[in-house]
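Standup notes
- HV: blocked on the assembly model, inputs below
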Amino acid sequence: MVRDITIGQYFPGNSVLHNADPRLKLVLSFVSIVFVFVCNNFYSLALVLAFTVVAVLSSRISLKVILKGLRPMLLLLIFTSALQLFYNKQGTELFVSRFITITTGGIFTTIFMVVRIICLVLLSSLLTYTTSPTQLTDGIERLLSPLKVFGLKNGVHTLAMMMTIALRFIPTLIDEIDKITNAQKARGANFETGGIVQRAKALLPIFIPLLVNSFRHAFELSLAMSARCYNGGEGRTRMKQLKLAARDYVLMAAEFIFVGGVIALNIIFESVI
Amino acid sequence: MSLLELKNVSYTYGAGTPFEITAIKNINLTIEKGSFVGIIGHTGSGKSTLVQHFNALLKPTEGQVLLNGEDINRSKHSAHEARFKVGLCFQYPEYQLFETTVYKDIAFGPTNMGLSEEEIKARVLEAAEFVGLTDELLNKSPFELSGGEKRRAAIAGIIAMRPEVLVLDEPTAGLDPSGRKKILSMICEYREKTDSTVIIVSHSMEDVAAIADKIIVMNKGQVYKYADVHEIFAHSGELASLGLEVPPVTNIFLKLKEMGLNIRTDIYTKDQAEKELLRYLQKEGIAW
């Protein structure tokens, strides 16, 4: 069950997005997500959708994986659309009965919300799908490096290192949860029946060993790091230097066109939301 | 009488996904009541996957697992019951201790069985005695114990369920020679006293050969051979070619044979080695 979660996973590949500079990808996905919410009429919404589709296709990640990542959102989408559809009272009334009133405002908001949430999830998961955890933290560290001016000398590096380690240990811990769960099941632990309190209690035999083991990993790792003379970020050079290449400028240009397009369409056509 | 029987059992991890891996293929096995079976095989040969079928932790993709003639996967209830009848102790079991005292941790299994307080106490004390944990240790936190003690406490947690079959996955992994000896002699003693069926999984034959009476050799997800220990060692050369670590003493005899000596190679204990060497020396007329 833990293995079904694809958000935050990395799928190695060799596409335009995979090869792009991680700093650029971070900035571009942030900007794109902002503009998902800037669009305010159907023309700019269509552009946002088209942009997202092109981005997904250019990542060359199988659509199966992409759809699987969207599946957890299904319930949220249905629930919020239902709320919007039935309780939004703006615009002209289309259908009125004793219990429900459906208005144009409700329908428009629903469409916008669904498209926006899907695009939001897709764009943000594309970032992690196409960027390895090390590249990602490297990118974050470099983007945040201006903060050093504010006396956070080692802070940015420490933060990035912590993130790298945390991401690195997710698969290890998932593996461990599997093993511990099986071991406790072998002793007759039951995680499937009983009330909420009972089920929560049944998880203790998993969480306690998991916590203890995490500390063990942490101690071992810190020992291994200091044995290799790790002493923070100061004076540390890196093996891979980040440098913007020609293809990164192409991506940047595409993003400018997208942003310009959304703004232009927003100005030309009337806002509906 | 056959206690545990596997019929055409296959298991595929991640069936229906691109990451599909068939871990074991078409396994047919019968474990006799009261026997002491060793399962050996290279890393990734499917040993651990196989033993998780014995207590219904894994449901076979194909085939059946019968315990006392009944399919253990026929219902959720029967699968749950099988966990108590087939006690499975995983690799590095000390990382699964969680209770506040060793006593409570050993009692976890029996408590899940829904036994009475007195019955649980009797079983915990009995199990603790089998593995050599003193009363004083029982009241300590499991996290205060030494590595070897933790391992023994974890094994006691399985023994306390009084399983019909005790399955131990690599019980000596990561222990020093004296710790290994202790665990192995403890298992032998447990078996003599309770007459129960014991299955030991190991990648090193040395541990298993000396104590088991039958051996299953796993290779690439299939049963390569299942026979009495002496029969397995009659083909000791084959085992070495499968990449299995044969006991050092067997290795010596394999090398002697290679050097052209007319000597037996189905040797796996020191006593056998002594006898065979004396026989050889006498036959060759070398005075001793």
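- HV (later): unblocked. Strands of chain A lie at 93-96, 101-103. Chain A has a mean pLDDT of 86.
- Next: hand off to the docking folks.
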